[in-house]
Amino acid sequence: MSITPHDERFMAAAIRLSRWHLGRTATNPSVGCLIVRDGVIVGRAVTALSGRPHAETQALAEAGALARGATAYVTLEPCSHHGRTPPCSEALIAYGVARVVISVTDPDPRVSGRGIGMLREAGIEVDAGVLEAEGRQSLAAYLTRQTKNRPYVTLKFAVSADGMIGREGAGQVAITGPEASAQVQALRAETDAILVGIGTAIADDPLLTVRAPGLQSQSPIRIVLDPSLALPLTSKLVETAREVPVIVVASEEASLLEAEGGNTPADAAEMESRRAALEAAGVEVVHCNPYHPEVLLPALATRGISSLLVEGGAKTARLFLEAGLIDRIQLYQAPVVIGEGGIESPLDATDIPSGFAHTGTLMFGEDRLDEYERGL
Ligand code: AOF
Ligand code: ZN
């Protein structure tokens, strides 16, 4: 049988369903699965919170005997390995599914092609690659971590009508309105970690949590690039470190500081006491050159972080852009005028780096969101 518009419609629904648990199944991807019999959905599921059970076994359980002869739509190739439960491919075979339609094949070396192989060997018809671009987008974090050993990185920033992202010495300056803020809260909720530079951490004293009603438990891990451990113990980040984790990325050794800023050996003792104080407050201090995202990102991936949101400020944005380590840019443009003392944006709509494609524009109240993406 060839792919029909019905297949695409059901796959689109499976992809929408998969987004429901985005960012909440780490390190497993959030996969959507529909079981369809005679054009009617008889089972549906998304990978459970924290990653197990997988989508297929839950959808099959809902369909029960109706799964026999039905078609399963899955956003990712069904697994073939034994985890905490037997492989999903085995379950699809056992329930007597006649056809499996897949969006994206799984790069996990334990699965990669074997899931499809098991199904075909059992006589099940398999079609892969349906709505693949959309499927890959919904699995971007998982695919990036699996194939590039780093998180999928989104750079988000808001620019005023006069091209500014804030005002010198003014702390947090409202640029976008409440509708855009709600959207950013939703973005944070589906992201594993959020990162800012020490400049922003001090100037804005941000909380970087998710406060939207119903999503409060989905705050990402908060990461501060802080070479010399200058994050104040009285900052909101440190004060809430026991509720939502904070990781401070400091320079690897005092000798590096010396080379960079002429610090004296006395600073090593000072660093040590700051580190002890931060750790006593519940902050995790990681030593890794904060100016080398190409080293930091694989370290974060190893800890299970698949998606990262870079939220500020200009210096940190430039650092990641120059390293070529941004996968997606979300640029909010607001009608607000900052004027005198403004901090210039590192980027505007006219100088988005080459390699990024403009993938959409949305309006949130008065604010315009433009999204740009690079291929995975
Ligand atoms: C599926 N359906 O819903 C998901 C899959 O740690 P484990 O044993 O759960 O295995 C994780 C791997 O399972 C992950 O790398 C990916 O290959 C697959 N995820 N597979 O059939 C699902 N979430
Ligand atoms: Zn599975």
TrEMBL record:
PROSITE patterns: CYT_DCMP_DEAMINASES_1 (PS00903), CYT_DCMP_DEAMINASES_2 (PS51747). Pfam families: dCMP_cyt_deam_1 (PF00383), RibD_C (PF01872). One of its GO terms (biological process) is riboflavin biosynthetic process. Signal peptide: none annotated. The keyword Cytoplasm does not apply. Substrate binds at R188, L208, R211, E311. NADP(+) binds at A158, T200, D204. Zn(2+) binds at H54, C79, C88. The active site is at E56. It catalyses: 5-amino-6-(5-phospho-D-ribitylamino)uracil + NADP(+) = 5-amino-6-(5-phospho-D-ribosylamino)uracil + NADPH + H(+); 2,5-diamino-6-hydroxy-4-(5-phosphoribosylamino)-pyrimidine + H2O + H(+) = 5-amino-6-(5-phospho-D-ribosylamino)uracil + NH4(+). Its cofactor is Zn(2+). Pathway: Cofactor biosynthesis; riboflavin biosynthesis; 5-amino-6-(D-ribitylamino)uracil from GTP: step 3/4; Cofactor biosynthesis; riboflavin biosynthesis; 5-amino-6-(D-ribitylamino)uracil from GTP: step 2/4. Keywords: Hydrolase, Metal-binding, Multifunctional enzyme, NADP, Oxidoreductase, Riboflavin biosynthesis, Zinc. Residues 5-127 form the CMP/dCMP-type deaminase domain. Its EC number is 3.5.4.26, 1.1.1.193. Binds 1 zinc ion. InterPro entries: APOBEC/CMP_deaminase_Zn-bd (IPR016192), CMP_dCMP_dom (IPR002125), Cytidine_deaminase-like (IPR016193), DHFR-like_dom_sf (IPR024072), Eubact_RibD (IPR004794), RibDG_C (IPR002734), Riboflavin_Biosynth_HTPR (IPR050765). GO terms for molecular function: 5-amino-6-(5-phosphoribosylamino)uracil reductase activity; diaminohydroxyphosphoribosylaminopyrimidine deaminase activity; zinc ion binding. The keyword NADP applies. NCBIfam families: eubact_ribD. In the C-terminal section; belongs to the HTP reductase family. Converts 2,5-diamino-6-(ribosylamino)-4(3h)-pyrimidinone 5'-phosphate into 5-amino-6-(ribosylamino)-2,4(1h,3h)-pyrimidinedione 5'-phosphate. This is Riboflavin biosynthesis protein RibD.
